[in-house]
Structure formats: C-alpha cells, structure tokens
C-alpha cells in the first residue's frame, strides 16, 4: 500500500478585526486577543477502539466538539486551532464545523505532542497575545476554569489548571515493593487548559526545539527555563479520557453541575 500524501493545512480565515491602539478589537467591542490550540493529534490506542478517542461521542456529542464549542462560546477568543492527525487534517469530520467556522483553523499534528503545539502556535494570527493550549481528551472543560487560566496569563505568567493531590502517594521499586510514602502537601495534578503570554510560550518551545527536549505539558517547557508558572483551581470535570472506561465516567460527570 502506498503512503498517502502529506495533508496540507486547511486555513479558515479569522474574523474581521480592526486595530484600535495596541489592541485588537472585535466589532462588538470585546477584545479578541486569545488564541486556542486544541491538541487532537493522538491515536488514542489505549482506549482499545479503532476510532480516534477525540472523535468518539461522550455526553451527547463528539469529544473534540465539546472543547471547540466551549472555547468558541467566549467573546475574547479570536481563533481556535484544532491540530489533527495528518490523515484527518485535509478532510476533517463534518461535525467539526458545527461551530463558528470564521474562528476555526485546522492544522496538522506532529509526531510528538510538543510538535503539534508548535504547529498550532505558528497558525495563530498576529493579534493573539494570550495562547491557550488544551487537550481534546479533556472534553468537559468548564468556562470558569478557562477564565482562571486566562486571567493569570494576562498578568504576565503561565497558568495551569490543576487539582491538589488527595490520595496517599507511594513510591515503589521495580518489584512493586513500597520504598517510601511521598509527601503530598505541595503536590497538584496538572490538567489543561494551560494559558501563557504568547511570547513566553513561543520562547519555551523555541528553546526546547534547540535543546532537543520535550515535556508532557507546555508548563514543563516553561519551567525548565525558569519562567513563572502558577496553578489555578481546575475541576474534576477536567478529567482526561485515556481508557475506554473513562467515557462512561465522563458521561456521568457531565450530568453534575459545574
């Protein structure tokens, strides 16, 4: 079987924005200076399904569509860049366009997560000053969580949605024997969205590419440079769908009040 040609990026133009001073102002008077990169380039192999987990239905709609519509409901968002696997980027599923197509752009995912984020960042228009990165595998993101990370990013530092660790943590060796109990006092479980001043996040990714390093999230790339990142309160609704059983859990969580 011959390999399919590389999928070109599908660019859908952002809304018409006029410049007023140093800020980009939407016609309704709301500052639209936030760009969102939704990382949906993974294969989702751990769910045990041939269908991509970001395309599977959860809580009444495809998982990816939840995130796209949540961010597009915000008047401060100028554009949402969805990073899809190469095979899907040229011909996205039609339900993806059940949203504001004037603020939608589809980009091609890389081999690793950080490469996908870079592709998304490169597609953000010039008026974007706050960059938000979100995992499509977390479909139930709340607007309150988005508010908190963006508010902190506007102060000039990165922000990560997270929850404090409440379980007792055990470090174990290769044979499963407990080595020690880990102090959980200052430990948090990182989630997405994560928000940053755009220039800060770009700096972190440029340095990572130069040094040949990666990280499991964007905050980690900023941390290695000593750039300030804070945690804000996330939500249990921000759970990540990893295994097949997580779909049922997400369905249940969607019925709870935010």
UniProtKB/TrEMBL annotation:
EC number: 2.7.7.60
GO MF annotation list: 2-C-methyl-D-erythritol 4-phosphate cytidylyltransferase activity
InterPro entries, per the entry: IspD (IPR001228), IspD/TarI (IPR034683), IspD/TarI_cytidylyltransf_bact (IPR050088), Nucleotide-diphossugar_trans (IPR029044)
Pfam families membership: IspD (PF01128)
Site feature: Positions MEP for the nucleophilic attack: 184, 240
Keywords, ordered alphabetically: Isoprene biosynthesis, Nucleotidyltransferase, Transferase
Site positions per UniProt: Transition state stabilizer: 46, 53
Top EC group: transferase
Catalytic reaction list: 2-C-methyl-D-erythritol 4-phosphate + CTP + H(+) = 4-CDP-2-C-methyl-D-erythritol + diphosphate
Biological process (GO), any one: isopentenyl diphosphate biosynthetic process, methylerythritol 4-phosphate pathway
Residues in the signal sequence: none
Membrane-crossing segments per the record: none
Gene3D superfamilies: Spore Coat Polysaccharide Biosynthesis Protein SpsA, Chain A
Pathway stated in the Swiss-Prot or TrEMBL entry: Isoprenoid biosynthesis; isopentenyl diphosphate biosynthesis via DXP pathway; isopentenyl diphosphate from 1-deoxy-D-xylulose 5-phosphate: step 2/6
Domain of life: Bacteria
Similarity comment: family membership: Belongs to the IspD/TarI cytidylyltransferase family. IspD subfamily.
Function: Catalyzes the formation of 4-diphosphocytidyl-2-C-methyl-D-erythritol from CTP and 2-C-methyl-D-erythritol 4-phosphate (MEP).
Name recorded for this polypeptide: 2-C-methyl-D-erythritol 4-phosphate cytidylyltransferase
Organism listed in the record: Gemmatimonas groenlandica
Native organism taxonomy: Bacteria, Pseudomonadati, Gemmatimonadota, Gemmatimonadia, Gemmatimonadales
Gene name for this UniProt entry: ispD
């Amino acid at each position: 079987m011959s390999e399919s040609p590389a999928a070109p990026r599908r660019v859908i133009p952002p809304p018409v924005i006029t410049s007023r001073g140093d800020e980009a102002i939407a016609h309704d008077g709301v500052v639209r200076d936030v760009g969102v990169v939704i990382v949906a380039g993974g294969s989702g192999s751990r769910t045990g399904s041939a269908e991509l987990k970001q395309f599977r239905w959860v809580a009444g709609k495809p998982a990816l569509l939840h995130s796209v519509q949540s961010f597009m409901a915000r008047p401060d968002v100028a554009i949402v860049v969805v990073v899809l696997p190469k095979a899907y980027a040229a011909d996205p599923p039609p339900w993806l366009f059940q949203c504001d197509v004037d603020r939608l752009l589809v980009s091609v995912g890389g081999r690793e997560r950080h490469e996908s984020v870079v592709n998304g960042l490169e597609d953000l228009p010039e008026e974007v000053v706050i960059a938000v990165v979100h995992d499509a595998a977390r479909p139930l993101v709340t607007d309150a969580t988005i508010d908190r990370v963006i508010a902190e990013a506007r102060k000039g530092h990165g922000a990560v949605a997270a929850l404090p660790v409440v379980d007792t943590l055990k470090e174990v060796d290769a044979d499963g024997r407990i080595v020690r109990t880990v102090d959980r006092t200052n430990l948090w479980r990182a989630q997405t969205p994560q928000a940053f001043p755009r220039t800060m996040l770009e700096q972190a990714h440029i340095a990572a590419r130069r040094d040949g390093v990666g990280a499991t999230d964007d905050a980690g790339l900023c941390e290695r440079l000593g750039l300030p990142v804070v945690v804000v309160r996330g939500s249990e609704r921000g759970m990540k769908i990893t295994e097949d059983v997580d779909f049922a859990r997400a369905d249940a969580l969607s019925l709870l009040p935010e």
